[in-house]
What we know:
This protein has about 290 residues and is of the alpha/beta class. The chain folds into two domains: about 1-25; about 30-280, NAD(P)-binding Rossmann-like Domain (Rossmann fold, 3-Layer(aba) Sandwich). Helices cover about 50% and strands about 10% of the residues. It has helices at about 5-25, 45-60, 70-80, 95-110, 135-165, 180-185, 190-210, 230-235, 240-245, 255-265, and strands at about 40, 60-65, 85-90, 115-120, 175, 215-220, 275-280. Strands 3-2-1-4-5-6-7 form a seven-stranded parallel beta sheet, with helices on both faces.
Amino acid sequence: MPVVALLKAWHRCYRARLVTLRMYFGDPVGNVPCMNTCILVTGAGRGIGAAVARALAADGHRVAVHAGRDAASASRVMADLPGEGHAVVIGDLSSPETCERVFAEAVSTLGDVDVLVNNAGVFEAHPVDSTTYAGWQHAWRHTLDVNLLGPANLSWLMVDHLMHRVRGPAGGRLVSVGSRGAYRGEPTTPAYGASKAALHAMTQSLAVALAPSGIFAATVAPGFVDTEMGRTVLDGPGGDAVRAQSPFGRVAEPAEVAATVAWLATTAPEWVSGTVIDVNGASYLR
């Protein structure tokens, strides 16, 4: 057989085997995690986080379902997940020490953590013209502790884990759930808007810092979502105005945001790292 024909035959065989390997183990070039990836999802006892946990489990991944205090809700979410090997971890992420414990428990129960989804957050009204100074201080401290410092601490713990695990950091992923409020402003919850803007910036900074180690980082910025946290607004006198913000005339379902988060957490190409993806039904364009 001529050398050229031999090389072509070898190349075809190589490509076929590579495709098979990628089906089972992911893309070694794009660092796409393989099936049965171990994923910690914070704030997964309800809303977007619960929908993210369901989407990931449905794709065959193992999930640590985190909740701040409501262990019963987290346990119900876990019990409904397809597949096996899931876990529940509980703890207030405003505490650095609790972040450390929560992350260690996720690693211990899952056996590893390949992906961190920073979803947990609080949304508390504190309009500047009608909030006491003490209330203003509390709102800012609590919101930043949960929405920004918690994700920052967990991200440090995640990177430290990836850098020291036997198989190395490549393929690790950090996904943050931000908000369109980072761009359009949040008049009655300014600390929330500021915390999400900072979360976007932090995640993009980590994307640049961690790319040489093969670690991916990206953010989803949802608009208003039909969750328990937003139900008071949607059911109130301003609900129709909120729905009208989108030309679709509605707000997002948690599963719509979760689908984007799950894609970033698992199969999105690494060239998406550093991006902030708007998931707001064209309610805010930038």
